[in-house]
Design a protein that fits this description.
It is a single chain. This protein is globular. The chain is built from 2 helices and 5 strands; from the N terminus they run E-H-E-E-E-H-E. 23% of the residues are buried. It is 30% helix and 31% strand. It is of the alpha/beta class and 90 residues long.
């Protein structure tokens, strides 16, 4: 199953909030079970790209300056079975 965790807050290592640590641990466990987790988060630093794929984890983390605007394109690309909104919503 493909699961996308999406929020506006920057993800680890840029922000070590409780929701981010929970998403990290849950995603790691889901990956071990054979699922395909992914994370969409905000970015603390501006990049030239609208969305940046971070491969530092055992699952993809997509970082965006405006995740609420890029989520539609990302969902159409990775086709998750489930989307879970995390943290605060802007």
């Amino acid at each position: 199953m493909r699961i996308l965790f999406a929020g506006v807050e920057p993800f680890i290592p840029d922000c070590y909030s409780a929701p981010n640590r929970t998403v990290l641990e849950l995603s790691q466990q889901l990956a071990l079970m054979g699922h395909e987790p992914a994370v969409l988060s905000g970015m603390s630093m501006a990049k030239d790209q609208e969305i940046y794929r971070d491969n530092s984890f055992s699952f993809p983390v997509y970082r965006s300056n405006q995740p609420w605007k890029t989520i539609t394109a990302l969902v159409a690309t990775i086709l998750p079975d489930v989307v879970v909104l995390t943290g605060r919503i802007e």
